[in-house]
Amino acid sequence: MSTATADGAATPGRAPSGPPANATKTDKKRILGTRPWLAAVFLLPALVLLGALVVYPIGYSLYRSFFDASGNGFVGLDNYQEMFSDDATKTAIKNNIIWLVLAPTVSTALGLIFAVLTERVRWATAFKLIVFMPMAISMLAAGIIFRLVYEQDPDKGVANAMWVSVHDSFTESPPFPGAHPRPAAGMTDGSNGSFTTRATVRAGTPASLPLVAAKRDDISGAREARAAQPEAGKVTGTVWFDFTKGGLGEQGVLDKGEKAMADLRIEAVRDGKVVARTTSAADGTYTLPAKAEGARLRLPAWNFSEPYNGVDWLGPTLVTPAIIGSYVWIWAGFAMVLIAAGLAGVPRELLEAARMDGANEWQVFRRVTVPLLAPVLSVVVVTLMINVMKIFDLVYIIAPGPSQDDANVLALQLFQSSFGTDVNQGLGSAIAVLLLLLVMPVMFINIRRIRREKRR
Fold first, then answer.
1. Pairwise CA distance, residues 371 & 9, whole Å
2. Which CATH superfamily is domain 86-158+313-423 in?
3. How far apart are CA 244 and CA 408, in angstroms?
């Protein structure tokens, strides 16, 4: 660019900025921009929508929070006082803090790990697609899915089916849950669920133990019971399911076709001490050594205890972490995609230089990769923090009725106060104002970050 001097010679320099000194008013408008009223016309639809959907609801909620449930009586700050004295709202605030700490942190951490590891995976695109796929599912559908995943019955709930499989690999399951001896079998109930014979046993005289109330699935594949033969110097007997179809059998007597009860633990007890143990065979028979003579037979409570049904995921203790787990399943893919995009812009020369200086992979990740990804990580964390502050649908769908109070969050409490059984829209508006105040600091942090990035 060159400018002309007084004698007409061109000299290099910067072109003059702004409109020429002799420019007309019309020329200035063309250069500086269009008419302000025309810009306002174009902005008016957006401003109307912003006012109708954001400004007016906020203002009306603030106004409504100072009135009673009917909306006619002015109560001042009573709704706010009631809100902070209500146990349900206190639980909601506590759970929102848990959500605010755990959900963004875990989602971002998993997204970071996935983004870094997929760089070294051959099928990285397919893996990212699978992890990101839950984002395409609505919160309502995800809530229904995880309500089934967390089902208590291992035959229905995936989480407990896996947990029970692992548990049963290391712990033996009881053979006949719910079964018990016949009332006329001569056995007394123990305080811990065990059953003990009233009479002592003698060697050479078989002791029969008839049981009832076994579940059909537990007894259907059993062999036919066999009467035990007396053995010199040993205590023998038979444990069987004392039931014949049609009620044709005789109670307390081993009838033909009645099923054996195998793998039942049997103990010989004398003076409160176990002197011998055995387990019933596939045909229901059992054998105890001679030292069992004169003792009483006891069937431990373990034989009849209920099988392990896993963890009560949606109980009062674990319902909030369980719902947070479903949230992480959805949003970890979102975090992974954003972090992977930021990771693609990291200069590889810095990573290679760190490796050449002797840094191992963990040191490269912790001291080079993570600091370079700090702006992206802050974007993900702040976005998720704003998102979890208004979480509602997952909690409403997943938490069952008895545990919903324990899983309560502010958005759900707002809904229940405003539209639930005990309607008080004044209290609901106060909770809405509180939720807005809690979200605003996170929003200000996000705005400051955006402005800081624009200055760079």
1. 54
2. MetI-like (1.10.3720.10)
3. 52
Token match 């010989």: residue? Answer: 268
Burial of 438 (0-12, 13-18, 19+ CB in 10 A): middle
**202: its two tokens:** 């003698």
* Residue that the structure tokens 């787990």 belong to: 325
Tell me the C-alpha distance between 447 and 456, whole Å: 15
Residue owning tokens 């796929």 = 133
The pairing of beta strand 265-270 with beta strand 207-212 = unpaired
**pLDDT single digits (tens) 53-95:** 989 999 999 999 999 988 889 999 999 998 888 888 899 999 9
**pTM to 2 decimals?**
0.76
Q: Could you tell me where in the chain the CATH 1.10.3720.10 domains are found?
A: 86-158+313-423
Sign of the torsion formed by the C-alpha atoms of 277, 280, 286 and 287: negative
Average predicted confidence (pLDDT) for the chain: 87
User: Within 10 A of 174 (CB to CB), how many other CB atoms are there?
Assistant: 20
At 178, list the tokens: 């719910």
